[in-house]
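Give me structure tokens for this 194-residue protein.
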Amino acid sequence: MTPFVVGLNGSPRREGNSATLLGEALQGAEAHGARTARFDLAFMNISPCTACDECFSFGECVLEDDMSLLYKALEEADVVIVCSPIYFSGISSYTKLAVDRCQALWARRKVLCVPRRPGHGAIVLCAAQPDARFDNAVSELRAFLLGIGIAPKEVMRVPGAGTRTYVRESEELRASARALGRAMVNLTNPGPWP
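Here you go.
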């Protein structure tokens, strides 16, 4: 079976540091035999959760927007990689919109007890400040992954990325992101790939 890796980019910069790290991670996964899907959340039509609790009845969100594509991919994913810039020690608003709208998937797992096959997750966070705090963002994204039925496994923290080209100028960081992608694919099938 070919592993399916879903990447979520929470940055509004198409070629910024977070987007570059996610792209490298997905390349690493593809080079290791996975098929991938990437969602650039800032450029999707995603409305905020209205806390209507309708998803508690059937595990479906009543809002109709681009989240329907994301729900489908997240339910099929063997691996989910979430990448976000750090804003005030937290995730970006684009990441937060998608995370909150996954209340429907949380309801499937925790309220309706709809099973999901095992999946693994990684968190990639990028901050401009060298002394940035990542704890809040890691905690929230771990809770998100667990809530949708994905086991969080890896966290990559990149402090000091003060310029838009910081990651592109660092082969070491790009190689680390590719290695993360490969490692996540290995978790889905630890045996050799054909």
